[in-house]
Amino acid sequence: xxxxxxxxxxxxxxxxxxxxxxxxxxxxxxxxxxxxxxxxxxxxxxxxxxxxxxxxxxxxxxxxxxxxxxxxxxxxxxxxxxxxxxxxxxxxxxxxxxxxxxxxxxxxxxxxxxxxxxxxxxxxxxxxxxxxxxxxxxxxxxxxxxxxxxxxxxxxxxxxxxxxxxxxxxxxxxxxxxxxxxxxxxxxxxxxxxxxxxxxxxxxxxxxxxxxxxxxxxxxx
Length: 221
What we know:
80% helix, globular, mainly alpha
């Protein structure tokens, strides 16, 4: 029974929703730490926050859970996408058959793929080198200086902005969809969930996007 729960379409949607909400909680923490860079004090406050995230044993444990959360979310998303494609005996144009469905809700797989590519680039730039350096030498890399140097490149800034834009559209549909998947859907609460969805889809990616732009324009040094 438990196996059927997690292998059925409904079970997979619930798993994807729960993993997605967990990843959203990570985004809140990640954005909060990144936002410390706006103190513009040559990285002193940001370095304190980054050091806490890199050395706190609870955070380090959660990182492992986070990796599994990403894997579950990605795998379940791909499985559901494949099942949906197989379920369509006749391919059709969305515009003619689902006029009320927003384009970003029909493009979650594409947006998710763009976010995954961005995540790979982002972790290779900062997280992976820092963790490897910690394991080898027992100390952290100068992340603030690395960030300042990385975002002197307009290509790196553009990649980051594309990733943030993809995340925004992904959150816009995914946040409210997650609540529906776990059974939280009521005319009394849906307007609040919708407002929260728009808030997250704007505030989280915008805060992340402002950082590289501010560095590139010299507002943060």
